[in-house]
Amino acid sequence: MPVRTLPMRKLKAAALAAALSLGFLAAPAAQAAEGHISIPDTRFSFDGVFGTFDRGELQRGFQVYKEVCAACHSLRLLSYRNLRDIGLSEAEVAAIAASYQIQDGPNDNGEMFERPGRASDRFRKPFANDAAARAANNGALPPDLSVITKARVGGADYIHALLTGYQDPPPAGVTVMEGMHYNKYFPGHQIGMAPPINSDGQLQYADGTRATVDQMARDVSTFLTWAAEPELEQRRAMGVRVILFLVILGGLTYAVKRKVWADVH
Amino acid sequence: MASGLHDSSFTNPVVRWIDQRMPVFTMLQKEYGTFPTPRNFNYFWNFGALAMINLVIMIATGIFLVMNYTPHTALAFESVERIMRDVNYGWLIRYVHMNGASMFFIVVLVHVWRGMYYGSYKAPRELLWILGVVIFLLMMATAFMGYVLPWGQMSFWGATVITNLFSAIPVVGNAIVTLLWGGFSVDNPTLNRFFSLHYLLPFVIFGVVFLHVAALHITGSNNPLGIEPKGPQDTLPFHPYYTVKDSVGIVVYLIVFAVLVFFAPNYLGHPDNYIPANPLVTPAHIVPEWYFLPFYAILRAVPNKLGGVLMMFGAIAVLFVLPWLDRSPVRSMRFRPIAKWAFLLWTVNFFVLMYCGGMPAEEPYVTISRLATAYYFAYFLVILPLLAKVERPLPLPESIAKAVLRGGGPVPGGAAAKPMEKA
Predict the structure, then answer these.
(1) CA B76 to CA B195: how far, in whole Å?
(2) For chain B, which terminus, N or C, has the lower number of CB atoms within 10 Å?
(3) How many CB pairs under 8 A join A and B?
(4) CA B346, CA B382: separation in Å to the nearest integer?
(5) What stretches of A75-168 adopt beta strand conformation (E)?
(6) Nearest 5°: phi and psi at A172?
């Protein structure tokens, strides 16, 4: 008997697992249908189950956002104080915040006024509203980037691919509309955004890293992933502990179960 | 003993005092302590308890989310992200709630599957089964309205598509849609009433679960052999045997749950729902959550709108009458050589529908959806009624104890009769 039952039990477990995983397969299948452009896989510091954000990458990525993206793209869900998480000191964060003029008010006279930013302020938006953003961008609305890696199939890989996927001139036979740019990875291939990162050495990294197009795209993709999922590291670390605990608890529970059932078979 | 007091068997003076006046301890002892339970459950019988735990997790996390959520079209999306960022462990609470919905459907689908495979819907458990289908319907309504609350693109467009289905109903359809929306489009009043109902329905579910369990404790549980226990040799007290066995299942369930929450929290979701709702921009493909995909495929398989809606609701409605469609006196598919394969094919077919529901409405998926929809209904309406007449079931074992303790008899090997033998 004991020889026979074990594989059977395994078989049942396998059948159950197969049934469940079939259900799970349907979800990515649903997403796969969305676009037929395959996004190249970029290797990031936070890839995999145990990956964490490289602090240098995050800080360089912030620099790219600040000097390039922030001209058009807001990051409205973030506050300057959040930058403590990417390894900046309190003084550095205060200095960054103070370098922006933030509208506040109304004051005692009922007037709005500008003051230097504080760490508790949200990132300043480049445009007062969507209409202003469209007016300045040829009718296109630059999306807010706070959760952009969660909001696009492919996440950080997609952002990196998009930033490095411009092609000028476009492939033969493709006519790009006035004011649009050809991008290999953008759905429909015609994107309103001009290549934001267009040449090596476009900016000077504070830490001396060579600012190649690939490096800048990689750094800002990492930064935006952090912006979208600031809890990622804490989440994974907690997950490891929770699952280790559950595995041990499961072993003990199963042992108790065997002992309780020992007398009825 | 004063007259009018319950005759309590508890000796602890405090417990006894309460129990004499309100015999909750006696009831618990009877229903969860000594409750005679068939001794041959396999691990499929864990899923009822798992569903119960899942409901409690959903209600508990939901209550904390509501403390920080703002049901307003201009603020809902942002308030959800505030929860993720600025509420202590808000990301954990929200991801548990979000993935908890998927876990709930996984658990309940397995629970329903088990009921269908082992014939748990048959007399005398018809009402128990019907209450279960009611719970399933309520769950779907609750999940749908919950998905609308973050007010992302899929929330908005999913709500638009699904509520619009009611407009297919002749005469009153448009009035119903206006009522659901609280206006003439999906907007703030819609979000507000969905929020209200999303908070209400889980407690309704809780009530129906109570009835479901109450009915279960009258008829007793079915078991993998599908034959009734004939005496104490066929049963075990619920505690400690099944409390401990359920505990094993609960830990395994929590591990799967934890993998999703901590390592793939957005895997089962759709990226578009992280784009704030915009009534002016329609997503390329409007796809419901994975647990609605089979029914979505049935909806789209029918070229006529009203027909599609009726078929979709019919796919659930047919479950209500399942006890009367399947007239075979044999419950467990183990002893039904043809029905077993018809049902396993139905199971595969369910996953085919799920797959097609996630695909765009184009060939070959449309044709596959139609064939799969046909088989979905044919199983209930043709195959089961027919098999009840023509199928020759295998001989049933004399009793549970005989089949379990003497190593089998007529139990087919492949289906494994012995749930937990000492290895």
Answers:
(1) 11
(2) N
(3) 155
(4) 13
(5) 101-104, 113-116
(6) -55, 140
> For strand A181-182 and strand A113-116, is the pairing parallel, antiparallel, or unpaired?
unpaired
CB distance A261–B405 less than 8 Å?
A: no
Sequence-distant (6+) residues with CB within 8 A of A10 are: none
H or E element: which one contains B143?
A: helix B126-148
Tabulate helix, strand, coil % of chain B (nearest 5): 65, 0, 30
pTM for the complete prediction?
0.90
In B40-189 the beta strands, taken as DSSP E runs, fall at: none
- Closest to A157 (Cα-Cα) out of A145, A148, A146, A167: A148
- A199: nearest Cα among A188, A189, A210: A210
Which region holds residue B321: left if phi is over 0, alpha if psi is between -120 and 50, else beta?
alpha
Q: What is the DSSP letter of A118?
A: -
CB within 8 A of B225, min separation 6: which ones?
Answer: B40, B332, B334, B396, B397, B400, B403, B411, B417
Neighbours of A102 (CB within 10 A): 17
Cis peptide before B283 (omega within 30 of 0): no
> What is the secondary structure of B339-379 as a DSSP string?
HHHHHHHHHHHHHHHHHHHTS-S-TTHHHHHHHHHHHHHHI
3-state helix, strand, coil in chain A (%, to 5): 50, 5, 45
**pLDDT by position in tens, chain A (length 265):** 334 444 444 445 555 455 454 444 444 444 444 447 889 999 999 998 899 999 999 999 999 999 999 999 999 999 999 999 999 999 999 999 999 999 999 999 999 999 999 999 999 999 999 999 999 998 899 999 999 999 999 999 999 999 999 998 888 888 888 889 999 999 989 999 999 998 898 999 989 999 999 999 999 999 999 999 999 999 999 999 999 999 999 999 999 999 999 988 7
Q: How close is the nearest chain A Cα to the Cα of B176, in Å?
A: 30
HSE value, Cβ hemisphere, 13 Å, CA-based, for B407 = 6
Q: ipTM above 0.85? A: yes
The CA-atom distances, in angstroms, between A217 and each of A46, A108, A199, B224 are 15, 46, 11, 58
| DSSP string of A204-236, one letter each residue | --TT-----HHHHHHHHHHHHHHHH-TTHHHHH
Q: Is the pLDDT of residue B415 over 80?
A: no
Which of chain A's residues have a Cβ under 8 Å away from the Cβ of B39? 264
> Nearest 5 degrees, angle CA A46-CA A49-CA A52?
30
The DSSP annotation for B314-342 comes to HHHHHHHTHHHH---S---GGG-HHHHHH
Does B111 participate in catalysis according to the annotation? no
Cα torsion angle, B221, B224, B226, B228, sign: negative
Identify all chain B residues contacting A77, using CB atoms and an 8 Å cutoff: 78, 81-82, 85
Q: Which residue has the tokens 């109902």?
A: B197
**Nearest of A252, A257, A238, A142 to residue A194 by alpha carbon:** A142
Q: Is B305 a residue of the active site?
A: no
Look up residue B22 and give its two tokens: 């309100």
A260–B240: do the CB atoms touch at under 8 Å? yes
Residue in this structure with the two tokens 């184009």, named with its chain if needed = B362
A94-149 pLDDT, tens per residue?
999 999 999 999 999 999 999 999 999 999 999 999 999 999 998 899 999 999 99
